[in-house]
């Protein structure tokens, strides 16, 4: 924790000096002793031109719709060769914003960019976009960019996606009084009356979905009838190069908060990312099929996975064939979330060359979460994780779950889900997790210390866990795993054995077979 506080202090000093990326934004130590080859992430640079959205008629009253002013400001600075678009202090209501190459959207301290809860402002896109690893139609994101270079969102202000206008809410996540207030506000209920939707359009889409958030609609008329169901991610950055997100608070997203997809050279620094704990699909950041990424000195408090790594789902993901590779996560703090650092479950293009260090997870359902299922395919390999402190983890500090069924670890446990453990044939649809190295882990308070649950036909392979102290209710369980090396492990369960091994091969503790 001391390292984390020092990192925040150093970042604050850097930010007070400059709003243009420099070599000092990400300290050299972040790249030190990498176990894989990775060049420093290229950061964007901007021309010395500045405009304010107020210069184009924008009003900070929280009532005036300022979409046109944002677009005019972007156009004006672009005509000058790029530069900075400033959002001063105040509440600036707007519809969707499209970022442009060579422009830094700078949200000053005291400024709130508030995206309108009027869903008619977010058209259903004709072009398919990727969500949860599949190409599907969605509504336009509040912030988007595609095929852009040298783009940034910086500052100390807040970007709010008005997610409550979009998101369904499960009854089980509400108190009785909160649930009554939701019902009194209008909206619609599903057939079982345990999920509330802000609109009938959203409810209808959910009831006719083929895969949770993927619709069965085919005609334009059918799509329009369930438009509200197709919630967008708040920040959708696709096929962009040299991207910098720094200092801003991103909160209250319709679905995922920040989604960089097929991007190269992404720097995420000093962010605060927030969603209500009950928010459906309320992920913090989902880094998908990206190359050369640093996530540094940022905090997350969200309703789903916090820092998540993906690369497409099933056949579509395998055809994409763009892994997430060369990723550094350092000095991050996670409060609520289904997982602190997560790989999967959509990892069909693969994930490789990842280093995670000096992070703190306080109350996340799972700490380090690796998840997939049959049908995904893909290979997750060469992952190094170290120096992680955790407290009050309701499930497992370390979880490998190759039978992921779309629920959080807590929901799956409460439902008593039983995976199909029959041996299956190995083919391109079989996911593989291997060559993962974890050390210097401390967790004070958890349910089960560790759970390795590989596939019988494709075990979790070659995992090293070293120097670990965990206080938990139950001990570790190693199942369907091969070549697991445990050393200097101290697990203090309140009941049961510290480590139980089932259906696994070559599992050792301090060099001795278990």
Explain what you see.
- This protein has seven helices and 41 strands.
- It is mainly beta.
- The protein has a domain at 169-228.
- It has a 22-stranded mixed beta sheet that branches. It has a twelve-stranded parallel beta sheet with strand order 4-9-17-20-23-26-29-31-33-35-37-39.
- The longest helix has 16 residues, at 2-17.
- The radius of gyration is 23 Å and the shape is globular.
- 50% of the residues are buried.
- Mean pLDDT is 94; it is low at 1-19.
Q: Name the average pLDDT.
A: 94
Q: Helical content, roughly?
A: 10-25%
**Strands, total number:** 41
- Helical/strand content category: mainly beta
Give the overall shape, derived from the CA principal axes: globular
Tally of individual helices: 7
Oligomer: single chain
Rg calc: 23 Å
Unreliable sequence segments: 1-19
Highlighted features:
514 residues; mainly beta; 22-stranded mixed sheet; 12-stranded parallel sheet; 41 strands; 13% helix; 40% strand; globular; disordered N terminus
Topology, element by element:
Elements lengths: L1 H16 L32 E3 L14 H13 L3 E5 L2 E5 L2 E2 L4 E5 L3 E5 L13 E3 L2 E3 L6 E4 L2 E7 L2 E3 L8 E2 L5 H9 L3 E2 L5 E3 L2 H8 L1 E3 L2 E2 L4 H6 L9 E4 L2 E6 L2 E3 L6 E4 L2 E6 L2 E3 L10 E4 L2 E6 L2 E3 L5 E4 L3 H7 L3 E7 L2 E2 L6 E3 L7 E12 L5 E4 L7 E15 L4 E4 L7 H7 L16 E15 L3 E4 L6 E13 L3 E4 L1 E13 L5 E4 L2 E5 L2 E2 L1
Parallel strand pairs: 1-2, 2-5, 3-6, 4-9, 5-10, 6-11, 9-17, 10-18, 11-19, 17-20, 18-21, 19-22, 20-23, 21-24, 22-25, 23-26, 24-27, 25-28, 26-29, 27-30, 28-30, 29-31, 30-32, 31-33, 32-34, 33-35, 34-36, 35-37, 36-38, 37-39, 38-40
Antiparallel strand pairs: 7-8, 12-14, 13-14, 15-16, 40-41
